[in-house]
Amino acid sequence: GAFLRYMRQPIKQELICKWIDREPPPPPPPGGRKPCSKTFSTMQELVSHVTVEHVGGPEQSSHVCYWEECPREGKPFKAKYKLVNHIRVHTGEKPFPCPFPGCGKVFARSENLKIHKRTHTGEKPFKCEFDGCERKFANSSDRKKHSHVHTSDKPYYCKIRGCDKSYTHPSSLRKHMKIHCKSPPPSPPPGSQGYEAAGP
């Protein structure tokens, strides 16, 4: 009984702030600048810390992510909310849960939740723009992929030498590529009839 109670306890998670402070001003200290490294037991504590201590309030005019090894490499955002959204890539915060019972999916961006909810509601607000086509889609990227069926545009080409197949959609090309990946079955040994005897 005690072991099962122990196993059901949530695993203690330690969340570490990896924001690299820009204080003191240059030149950087010997050994380079170090990340903040404060630890937190909940996502809410980490997010609150990063927002208050590092991102700053409305007085901040520069919106740069200084998270350790951020691929943006100091490129600023035009608005604070964009920086706050971006930081979720580093922290793993997903503050937008799907409200549909039993779904359980969570999202880092409200726009992604909005698109996801359409899988539950069946809403398809993006109508095909070609006259006579009544197809509708839950998001604009699916509509764009569909639009290739109305043109002779087949931008996804097989790159295997001697194969001239092309497709309107990348998934069709991936399916086609499987025929190139299959290797022929091994040839039976000479003199056999394609199978081996089961024993003497």
TrEMBL record:
<dbReference type="GO" id="GO:0000981">
    <property type="term" value="F:DNA-binding transcription factor activity, RNA polymerase II-specific"/>
</dbReference>
<dbReference type="Pfam" id="PF18366">
    <property type="entry name" value="zf_ZIC"/>
</dbReference>
<keyword id="KW-0862">Zinc</keyword>
<feature type="domain" description="C2H2-type">
    <location>
        <begin position="156"/>
        <end position="185"/>
    </location>
</feature>
<dbReference type="Pfam" id="PF23561">
    <property type="entry name" value="zf-C2H2_15"/>
</dbReference>
<dbReference type="InterPro" id="IPR043359">
    <property type="entry name" value="GLI-like"/>
</dbReference>
<feature type="domain" description="C2H2-type">
    <location>
        <begin position="96"/>
        <end position="125"/>
    </location>
</feature>
<comment type="similarity">
    <text>Belongs to the GLI C2H2-type zinc-finger protein family.</text>
</comment>
<feature type="domain" description="C2H2-type">
    <location>
        <begin position="126"/>
        <end position="155"/>
    </location>
</feature>
<protein>
    <submittedName>
        <fullName>ZIC5 protein</fullName>
    </submittedName>
</protein>
<dbReference type="GO" id="GO:0005634">
    <property type="term" value="C:nucleus"/>
</dbReference>
<keyword id="KW-0238">DNA-binding</keyword>
<keyword id="KW-0217">Developmental protein</keyword>
<dbReference type="GO" id="GO:0000978">
    <property type="term" value="F:RNA polymerase II cis-regulatory region sequence-specific DNA binding"/>
</dbReference>
<keyword id="KW-0539">Nucleus</keyword>
<feature type="domain" description="C2H2-type">
    <location>
        <begin position="68"/>
        <end position="95"/>
    </location>
</feature>
<keyword id="KW-0479">Metal-binding</keyword>
<keyword id="KW-0863">Zinc-finger</keyword>
<dbReference type="InterPro" id="IPR041643">
    <property type="entry name" value="Znf_ZIC"/>
</dbReference>
<dbReference type="Pfam" id="PF00096">
    <property type="entry name" value="zf-C2H2"/>
</dbReference>
<feature type="region of interest" description="Disordered">
    <location>
        <begin position="174"/>
        <end position="200"/>
    </location>
</feature>
<dbReference type="GO" id="GO:0008270">
    <property type="term" value="F:zinc ion binding"/>
</dbReference>
<dbReference type="InterPro" id="IPR036236">
    <property type="entry name" value="Znf_C2H2_sf"/>
</dbReference>
<keyword id="KW-0677">Repeat</keyword>
<dbReference type="InterPro" id="IPR013087">
    <property type="entry name" value="Znf_C2H2_type"/>
</dbReference>
<dbReference type="InterPro" id="IPR056436">
    <property type="entry name" value="Znf-C2H2_ZIC1-5/GLI1-3-like"/>
</dbReference>
